[in-house]
Amino acid sequence: MNETFCNAADIFGEDVFNDTTMQKRLPKKIYQALKRAIEEGAELDLETADVIAHEMKEWAIERGATHYTHWFQPLTGATAEKHDSFVSAPLPNGKVLMSLSGKELIKGEPDASSFPSGGIRQTFEARGYTIWDCTSPAFVRHDEGGATLCIPTAFCSYTGEALDQKTPLLRSMQALSAETVRLLRLLGNDTVRSAEPSVGAEQEYFIVDREKYLKRMDLVFTGRTLFGAMPPKGQELDDHYFGTLRPRIASYMKDVNEELWRLGVPAKTQHNEVAPAQHELAPIYEKANIAVDHNQIVMHTLKRTAYRHGLRCLLHEKPFAGVNGSGKHDNWSITTDDGTNLLDPGSTPHDNIQFLLILVCILRAVDNHAELLRESAADVGNEVRLGGNEAPPVIISVFLGEQLEDVLRQLISTGSATSSHDGGFLRTGVSFLTDVNRDATDRNRTSPFAFTGNKFEFRMVGSHDSIAGANTVLNTIVAESFSEVSERLEKCAPGEVMDCVHDIIKEYAAAHSRIVYSGNGYSKEWAEEAERRGLPIINSMVDAIPALTSDKTVELFEKFKVFNRTELESRSEVKYEAYAKAMNIEARTMMQMARRDIIPAIMRYIGDLAKASNAAEAAGMDTTVQKTVLRKLSGLLSEAQAAVDSLEKCTLLAEAMEPGRSQAVYFHDYIVPGMALLRAPVDEAERFVERSYWPMPTYSDLLFKV
Ligand code: ADP
Ligand code: MG
């Protein structure tokens, strides 16, 4: 039995062109040049790139690769790739060489004009380039089609505008690094040279049986169930949460882990989640752009491995109404080049001042840009998840934990961090911060942005979405706060910097304490309280998107060269269109399922029941029960039919509209409620129609019979 389990340490990273491999295979000078490019952003010349490309290709061929691809992340939320084989033009002797040039490594030009670009690329000027991101290692992916060398790239237009998720993320990382160094220098640290955001994304997902999945048109076309009555048992017993893995799932996860380890993804934790059939996988945190790439690899691997096991992995944010949805907790902190985590409260008072300053900077960032942060998690599937009774509310707030909140309160009143040492909880100096580490109460599970010991956890991001957007926003808004503080400190006389820091901490803590909330984020009281505090409450994606192009946002992103106005406008267009298209597919899928499967099934059952009822009546029997059921079902049937008809009318109108904001708003205001009106009678009917008549697997089949 044991030999089927491999040693993670042996296989870890074997399919990655990582530092060890590069060091082993590349000539020393080339390796050093590449290292400089990775660590300091130095440019690579073509000769160096040629050598790297050659070695990378040789290594990939040894690992079975026949093709290479520039692997990129367009605005679809997924990854894209176009495969080229290593085969070069045939030689006179009829043989071919396998080649990859430096030019091919560095730059690609996919004919990818159909990717969403929000108008940046008219098809007549459809040039788009993929450019090697040498800071994220290349890897060989094995699948049914053989093995492919995947080269992580950024995707830009001819005019240099970002067409992907990666480019702005990299820009925001540069901004955060520069502003962090600037601030730390002012605080007296003269050795720090760079800083990077560290990110760990916990990935939630559902697993269902593939055969059953294929019988659900809604799952196939939209990734979620558009109909379905709750089974008698849901998640109320919490018996699935952290429960023992079912054998089929355990064997699936074993394969997922092994594949991820081979690809250098440090998959660490796995467990059952709250909802039946729901699970979670968390890797160890990494530099943000690598974490983003790795999260894409995780999603891809979860799906492909499921296929091999006769299963289907659902990454949709809310595949089933009535049980928890899936999210992606984006754990975020800042690490300097000497390995210090700036969000670690530390153990000396001096560090605590720095920590408190950084903390209030983050509060300021989140409070000032709450709409933008909310927008970064706006994704079609997340619409049905956020604000539900088990997902973060749509209101951005920050959880700090009681102790830290108390420190903040005292800071506001006294203006000094040291005065908080009087508190009983601070008997051993700064132990309150250690207590914060231990603080993992149930309450903080409801917060969309929680401090968890030495990092913030942004819990709004959807399970299906890329984490690039949210991290781009986090990096940039925090860079802005740092920059504001630095500007002030630069004006202070050298001896007054620390006093000035104290003032800023006090000022920011006071000005932004409204964003701090430790209570139950799911409660109605919080919504009311948030409104009193003037916090934005943005219920839907269509209402979130305008934050992308507000003056405040444009100014922020232009200042730090993360996005220009054109890029932001294009992204907002892409999002409106994505929303409208997804809603249109959902509405059409519902109508077809209702018309071709569900309504006929109900009619068939009504017909058979009526026949049986007539026969019973002819035989002189009491048919009150039959008649009650018949009346109930025929009422629901008419309701369903009327709902389909009106949904169709609205959908036709919506489809005829110009793509853009008003179309998306129309879908939100009319199609979404129309779909709910159709779902209600159908779900109710499902509870009365005899099981064998129901035309598709039910929630019980999908959730409990894996
Ligand atoms: P939780 O705090 O949610 O119970 P963990 O401590 O296991 O769980 O962390 C969850 C995720 O956060 C993991 O991906 C982990 O690697 C990541 N993480 C831990 N520390 C940091 C950090 N300093 N910065 C960013 N992510 C981190
Ligand atoms: Mg978590």
Can you give me a brief rundown of this structure?
Helices cover 49% and strands 12% of the residues.
3D architecture notes:
The chain contains 23 helices and 15 strands. A hairpin with a 2-residue loop joins strand 5 and strand 6. The radius of gyration is 28 Å and the shape is globular. It has 706 residues and is of the alpha+beta class. About 4% of the residues have low confidence. The structure holds adenosine-5'-diphosphate (ADP) and magnesium ion (MG). Adenosine-5'-diphosphate binds next to strand 7, strand 9 and strand 12.
Radius of gyration, CA atoms, in whole angstroms: 28 Å
Q: Would you report the number of β strands?
A: 15
pLDDT < 50 runs, ≥5 residues: 417-443
Q: Helix proportion of residues, in percent?
A: 40-55%
Strand content: 5-15%
Instruction: Report the end-to-end length measured between terminal Cα atoms.
Output: 24 Å
Quick one: biggest sheet?
A: 9 strands, mixed
Bound small-molecule species = adenosine-5'-diphosphate, magnesium ion
Tally of contiguous helical segments? 23
The helix/strand class is: alpha+beta
Shape: globular
What is the mean predicted local confidence, pLDDT?
Answer: 89
